[in-house]
Amino acid sequence: MSRKSIMPNIAYDSQRRSFYVTMRSAPKKGEPAKRIVRCFPTLEQAIQVLDGYNAGRILSQSTGTEELTVGQCLTYWLEQVIKPCRTASTVHGYNMIIRNHLAPSLGQIRLKELTAAQIQQYLNRKQAEGLCSNTVRKHHGVIHNALEHARRQDLLSRNPAQWVFPPSSTHPTHHFYDDLDLVILYNLLKIMDNLLLNRILRKISQIQYVFDIQFITDSLVDPGAVGIHNLYNSGPHRTISHNRYIYHCCPSSAP
After folding, report:
1. Which of 40, 69, 75, 240 could be disulfide-bonded to 247 (CB atoms 3.0-4.6 Å)?
2. Per-residue 3-state assignment (H helix, E strand, C coil) for 94-162
């Protein structure tokens, strides 16, 4: 059997290389319990979805909130509070902080047992691992806001993150190119552009095409283009746009 349980309600399929989450709802009067199975490519995503489901199930009951964990609280806050009213980029940033940092370190702790000392140790440890002060402050902001929401929902008597001292913010230092740096950069880009041009010509020359190279201004080309980004077929003619050049190719008359 390729699917094997690795933790409660999560199984791993070695053939499909996927994680399966089983979510069960409490049976209602006269109805059997519902069972939902979802598939995820990573264990972190599977745990996050299961935490969010369990948190919603616990919070929907009048009792049982003693079992609520920090990871479940964070996931529920992200899905039910942040996601409906914030931009996709904000949700993605919060999700990365929770999934990659907060949940692995603090997620298994019961919500009501979380202390300010544990949060302070977490922030100190992240700074010692090399994260900059401003990033660590973002981590503190995420967990502070999530715990504050839990306090307003009467899941906590106080917010332990309120008594934590995050690192001081640092102002970024900006560096600018001088005239000599710009000359050096321009020459390097010129060399790189010529190397890429030679590679393109060698590839197209293998199919006996002759070329009419037209130089155009930078404003007419997609600034995000890198390398050969378009190849259009139009009968016997082809056009390749690369960087600041457009190559009009037609079949060679040579035998």
Report:
1. 240
2. HHHHHHHHHHHHHCCCEHHHCCHHHHHHHHHHHHHCCCCHHHHHHHHHHHHHHHHHHHHCCCCCCCHHH
Residue 94 domain-assigned (yes or no): yes
| Total domain count, the chain | 2
Do the beta carbons of residue 55 and residue 79 sit within 8 Å?
A: no
- C-alpha closest to that of 46 among 6, 88, 84: 6
Phi–psi pair at 24, nearest 5 degrees: -115, 135
- The pair phi, psi for residue 202, each rounded to 5°, is -65, -40
**Contact between 238 and 249 (Cβ < 8 Å):** yes
Q: Which domain holds residue 122?
A: 42-163
Of 90, 3, 92, 6, nearest to 47 by C-alpha is: 6
Does pTM surpass 0.90? no
- Residue 245, in any domain of the structure: yes
Beta bridge partners of 45: none
The answer to whether the CB of 69 falls within 8 A of the CB of 108 is yes
Per-residue pLDDT reduced to its tens digit, 159-203:
999 999 999 888 877 777 778 887 887 777 777 777 776 676 565
Domain shared by 142 and 213, yes or no: no
Q: List the one residue out of 76, 67, 70 whose CA is nearest residue 49.
A: 76
